[in-house]
Amino acid sequence: MHQREFPTSCYAAAAYHRRMDFKQLQTFVQVAELGSFTRAANVLRVAQPALSRQVRALEVELRQPLFDRNGRGVTLTAAGQRLLAHGRGILQQLERARQDLEEQRGAATGLLSLGLPPSIGRTLTAPLVETFRERFPRATLTMVEGLSTYTLEWLAQGRIDCAVVYNAAPAPAFELLPVLEETLFLVSARNGPAGGKLVGRPVSAAEVAKHELVIPSRPHAIRMRLEMALAEASLKPRVSLEIESVPAILDLVQRHPLHAVLSLNAIAGSGQEDRFRARTIIAGRAPLTASLWIATSAQRPRGPLLEQTLPLLAGLLKDRLGMAHSIEGRKARKSPA
User: Fold this and answer.
1) What DSSP letter does each residue of 132-175 carry, written as one string?
2) Domains of the chain (ranges plus CATH)?
């Protein structure tokens, strides 16, 4: 589709009267994300003609169209796509500047973004949100799930403020707070009718190496921990499928003759605990474990909200995951060797 031409006189008039401002940019981003002037006007609570004028003035200021209009809404032009990428970053920086000024007064307000591994997201999300809202009523919490490798990348890029990660390696870009060690289990589908104990007898590393596994790809922390443990016994895992999603892994274990290596929290809360059997993996003479850490950026200052959330988060991790560990320990001691 050909771009529309704007008369030079329009440029001169717009340049004389005004320049691009944050309100125009916010309007543009909202229209772009919703794909409609009508929907954006409803969200921003602005009359649609006024909203259209703001976007039109921005197009004139930039001397190129940002949207292709059609009967179903709008789509971004190539210039609009590039401006959207810049606009999101500019608005995010503006919001962070406002938060920084609030935090300078010592108020625990603003937005906190947290990354969680999928294996503990189901266990931790609800209690963390409830505790956070009670403790910081003027603050907003956003949570995203991702493998530790990804959440550390997001943390380095400034997309999140802290992350719960497995087996974190020291790095100049991060500050790491150790939380606990999680026992890892060989998770299998239960043979026969559902029911009975979740935790069965322990298995050796050699026995794990005999089973076909569905497991995340490298460099997933638990994958690397398992490979290192098996390598110490001159063994390799039999990886049948590489899947990044914990729910998908559990579904494949249940439907196919496959096994997984997960923490007990990956199963807890799934509503399908009675369909699986989890067995502690013994590597050498001790159970195989993965360490859990809270990571923050070493290159950005911590505000009051993050400072006050870190001990809250560490405490919830120990309480919620430790509770599962104590249940697991009691069941394991009752199970036959």
Assistant:
1) HHHH-TTEEEEEEE--HHHHHHHHHHTS-SEEEEESPPP-TTEE
2) 8-100 (1.10.10.10), 107-178+292-325 (3.40.190.10), 179-291+328-334 (3.40.190.290)
